Amino acid sequence: MAVEILIVDDEVEFAETFAERLELRGFTAHIAHSGEQALQLVDEGRAKIMVLDLKMPGMDGLEVLRRVKKSHPDIEVIILSGHGSEMDESFVLNLGAFAYLRKPADIGDILEIVKRAGKLLADRT
Amino acid sequence: MNARHYYSSLTRNVTLIIILVSFTPLILMAGLIGYYIETSYREKIMEHLHELVEKHQQLINSFLDEKLSDIKVLADSYTYDELTDETFLQNKLVILQNAYSGVFVDLGVVNSAGIQISYAGNLNLLNAGYSNAEWFREAIKRDYYLSDVFLGLRRSPHFIICVKKRHGDAEWLLRATLDFVAFNSLVERIHVGETGSALIVNSAGELQTRNGTELAPSLTGLLRSTSWAGRGGRESAEPAASGVAEVKAISSDTNVVSGIVKSMNRNFIFILMPLKSGEWTLAYRQDQDDAFSEVDRARVVVLSIFGFGCLAIVLVALFISRKVVGQIEKADLEKEIMNDQVIEAGKLASIGELAAGIAHEINNPVAIMVEEAGWLEDLLAEEESQKCRNFDEFRRSLKQISKQGVRCKDITHKLLSFARKTDPVHHEIQLNDIIDEILGICEQRSKFENIRIQTELDQRLPPIMASPTELQQVFMNLINNAIDAIGSGGGLLEIRSRVEGDKVVVDIADTGHGIPKSVMARMFDPFFTTKPVGKGTGLGLSICYGIVKKLGGDLTVDSAVGLGTTFHVSLPVHSQTS
Fold first, then answer.
1. B437, B418 in Cβ contact below 8 A?
2. Is the pLDDT of residue B231 over 50?
3. Where residue B207 sits, what CATH number does that domain have?
4. Is B85 domain-assigned?
5. Would you say residue B424 has pLDDT above 60?
6. Residues from chain B contacting residue A83 (CB–CB below 8 Å)
7. Which of A37, B230, B349, B524 is the most buried (most CB within 10 A)?
8. Tens of pLDDT along B484-516?
9. Residues of chain B with a CB closer than 8 angstroms to some CB in chain A
10. A82 to chain B: which residues are within 8 Å by CB?
11. Which residues touch B155 (CB under 8 Å, ≥6 apart)?
12. What angle do CA B201, B206, B208 make, to 5 degrees?
């Protein structure tokens, strides 16, 4: 079963490269370039795991996280942000994020966390 | 230098204002009250003396009147024949002597030729001739007569009362001699203070009493200004007198003349009153200093109180103004330091914001770079690519790109976390973390300066309560100073942390040039710097010191010139957060 991952990032280049690398590793990756687009894709049921950037024009990552956790609490959200500190980390974890990673992150680290999230989802169903 | 001048002139102005404001009412009050009291007191004393002299004037006048009327009664009551009878006259003398002990010396009847035809008394003066005596020439012209004091035939001072009567065609006089001593005692009784005394002079200024002979000359000048005396005075006596005495003040009335006379370098108060219808003058004299001694004493007391008051005001004014200006100076300095600290903090905060922005903006492109490198690595992993000639070289290069990207992330992360902590709120802090963080920032610089950094951090260090920003500032300053001290020659920077009692101690030791003694004394002073102009604010160490002290800790230093310097920062584990 291919785990569907939604990548939310306003940096188009980053999102596309990242998606290709995930697909190369056997995941199904979707891309959203804004918070609004991400919520729409979530509503369409296109993802079980979300990799979310915090700082985006328009609706920012925190807002997306809050809404997703409200409407789809079963979706696991991994924060991957360039703007980070410990305070943000504990803050987003409290909001229900699964993990917090800082850009640039090693693909191996990300995959490990994604796999853990996938396992959690599999256990749940 | 300017500031010194400002504060000293401020001190001077405050002192002058205090002195002026205190002195003005003090001087006005002391002056006015002193003037009024002195004036009224002097008036009172003069009034009192006037009354005293007036009382005696009345006493003496009544004494003389009484004696005169006694003789008048005697002359009116008895006939010429009776009075010329010596036994009868002796009898009358005894009666008078009994009534007024020691006043009447003798009685006598003198006929118009000046021959005493009847006499009662101790002396043998029967048939004595008085035709040439001055008193007789005066007495024969009037109904009654009181003579001046004179020596007469008996060669002792006395004076005479006579009443003129007519017997047929001939005039005769009843004459009584009054004892000078008895009369004199009336005047001598007036005695005030040490120098106040009275005397009687006739219209020519000749003494009629015993005492005060040395004053007589000074009186003649005054006598002329009375309305009653001096008319018949002998002019010859006056020029000599006016030479010695100088009349300083005078006020005259019909019945009294008072004034101040300067004589023999002393001021005397004079009060003159007429006696015997102006033929004699009762003169009271007192040394001015003696009369007003109370006033003088009071003046000395008032002046010394005033003097001490002024001295106290001056001292207090000096003390208060010094103290107040000292406080102002201190407050100004503190304000200045505060301002600088606020500016420093503001600078740090804005640098922090800038750094945060830059860090974020850099992270995204770096992330893309790393991602793209990763993507290329992924692609290289495919089979066809492995046949490529430079495959290993590509792989190594891509790995290097990823590695450097991660390094960028570390740098920006450090910058971010440093910038983020610009709040003075106290948190529980691990000192070791702060030291690591600062060392991370300073690492590049120390490498460039060829400085080895050695840390010996106690991992069991208990957390302390402090503001992360402030502690960062402290260690940043101290470590930067250490690197500056070592200079470009290279050296060793050692940082040790340990627990000492209930304190956490961090030593920052460098092998730099050391601190000379002269600098050591002032190194924590604000604005003191050994760095070239424009390179240092001179605030670094003083701010560090302030922060450490505020946290209830201590900042000390050991240094040996040429060997190096060690700063010890000790902070309480359970800090009293202020």
1. yes
2. no
3. 3.30.450
4. no
5. no
6. 356, 359-360, 363, 416
7. B230
8. 888 877 889 999 999 988 889 999 999 988 888
9. 356, 359-360, 362-364, 366-372, 374-375, 378, 402, 405-406, 408-409, 413, 416-417, 420
10. 359-360, 362-364, 367
11. none
12. 50
Minimal C-alpha gap between B372 and chain A (Å): 6
Per-residue tokens: A37: 């687009």
Q: How far is B518 from chain A (nearest CA, A)?
A: 45
Pinpoint the alpha helices (H) of B100-256.
134-139, 180-188, 216-224, 238-244
Instruction: Name the residue of chain A whose CA is nearest to B419's CA.
Output: A85
User: What is the radius of gyration, based on Cα positions, of chain A?
Assistant: 13
Query: Is the peptide bond preceding residue B526 cis, with omega within 30 degrees of 0?
Result: no
Q: Domain residue spans in chain A? A: 14-77+91-124
Give the full edge-to-edge strand order of the sheet including B503-510: B451-457, B491-500, B503-510, B564-572, B554-560
Strand B257-263 with B245-252, pairing? antiparallel
Q: B173 near B163, Cβ under 8 Å?
A: yes
Put simply, the answer to whether B417 touches A107 (Cβ < 8 Å) is: no
Q: Distance (Å, rounded) from C-alpha B140 to C-alpha B134?
A: 10
| Between residues B340 and B483, the one the model is more confident about | B483
Using CA atoms, how far apart are residues B203 and B200, in angstroms rounded to an integer? 10
Residues of chain A neighbouring B360 (CB-CB closer than 8 A): 55, 82-83
Candidates B353, B361, B363: best to mutate against A (most CBs of A within 10 A) is B363
Q: Confirm whether B201 is domain-assigned.
A: yes
pLDDT digits (tens, 9 = 90+) for B366-416: 889 999 998 988 888 877 777 778 888 888 999 899 888 888 887 777 666
Residue whose structure tokens are 């001694």: B293
Domain that holds residue B247: 190-291
Q: Is the ipTM of this complex over 0.90?
A: no
Chain A hits for B369, CB-CB cut-off 8 Å, are 104
Architecture field, domain A14-77+91-124: 3-Layer(aba) Sandwich (3.40)
